[in-house]
Amino acid sequence: MRIVLASNNAGKLHELGALFQPLGIELIPQGQLLQGEAPEPFHTFVENALSKARFAAKHTGLPSIADDAGLCVDAFGGLPGVQTAFYATQFGYPKDDWHNVQALLEQLKPHSNRHASMVSTLVGVRHPQDPQPLIAVGRVQVQIAPERKGDKGFGFDPVLWLPELQKTFAELPEDVKNRYSHRGRAAATMRELVREHWLPSHR
C-alpha cells in the first residue's frame, strides 16, 4: 500500500518510514508528487494535521498521513506549540533546528521550571472528504537540558532530556528513541489504526 506522508521533513520521513515498515506500507513524501503545502492556520495540532492530510490526499489521489508536532513548555504556558518550527524567528534568528534550540535555551535562562512535553499528532485520511480520519496522539514528558548533548536525531532532540533514561533524545540509538518519543508513540498507535481500518487483510 502506498500512502503519502504530508511532510517534506527528512527526519520525520525516516522515522515514520521505519515505524510503518512492518505493515508493508510505502510512505512517499508529498514533495515527490505535488508542489506547495497546506495552510496551517489553526492553534491545535490535530486541526493542522487534518488540514495537511486532506491537502495531500486531494492533490495526489492517495491516502495520506500527516504529522503535526511541537514542543509545549510549561514555563511558557504551553507555547510554542504549533509554532514550534518557527520558534527562533520571533527572536530574530533564521528558521532552523540549531537556532530553535539556541533561542529556547536563552529564553529559559530566567526560569527554574524546565518541564515540557513533546506532542505528535498523526492524522490519516483515505481521501479528501474522509468523514472518519484516523487520529493518533503521542506525548512524552521531558525536561529541557541546560546545554546540548548528543548528535543524533533532529529538531530539539539535543536538549530534550528524559529523566527515566538520564539522556537526551540526541544521545539515544534510533530504536530506543522510537520506543520513547512522542512520534514513536503516535506512530505505534496509528500503525494499529491503519491495520484495523485500512488493511482488513492484516486483521
TrEMBL record:
The keyword ATP-binding does not apply. Gene3D superfamilies: 3.90.950.10. Binds 1 Mg(2+) ion per subunit. GO terms for cellular component: cytosol. GO terms for molecular function: dITP diphosphatase activity; ITP diphosphatase activity; metal ion binding; nucleotide binding; ribonucleoside triphosphate phosphatase activity; XTP diphosphatase activity. Its EC number is 3.6.1.66. Its cofactor is Mg(2+). InterPro entries: dITP/XTP_pyrophosphatase (IPR020922), ITPase-like_fam (IPR029001), RdgB/HAM1 (IPR002637). Substrate binds at residues 7-12, 69, 154-157, 177, 182-183. Mg(2+) binds at residue 68. The active site is at 68 (proton acceptor). Keywords: Hydrolase, Magnesium, Metal-binding, Nucleotide metabolism, Nucleotide-binding. One of its GO terms (biological process) is purine nucleoside triphosphate catabolic process. Pyrophosphatase that catalyzes the hydrolysis of nucleoside triphosphates to their monophosphate derivatives, with a high preference for the non-canonical purine nucleotides XTP (xanthosine triphosphate), dITP (deoxyinosine triphosphate) and ITP. Seems to function as a house-cleaning enzyme that removes non-canonical purine nucleotides from the nucleotide pool, thus preventing their incorporation into DNA/RNA and avoiding chromosomal lesions. Belongs to the HAM1 NTPase family. Homodimer. This is dITP/XTP pyrophosphatase. It comes from Lampropedia hyalina DSM 16112. The lineage of its organism: Bacteria, Pseudomonadati, Pseudomonadota, Betaproteobacteria, Burkholderiales.
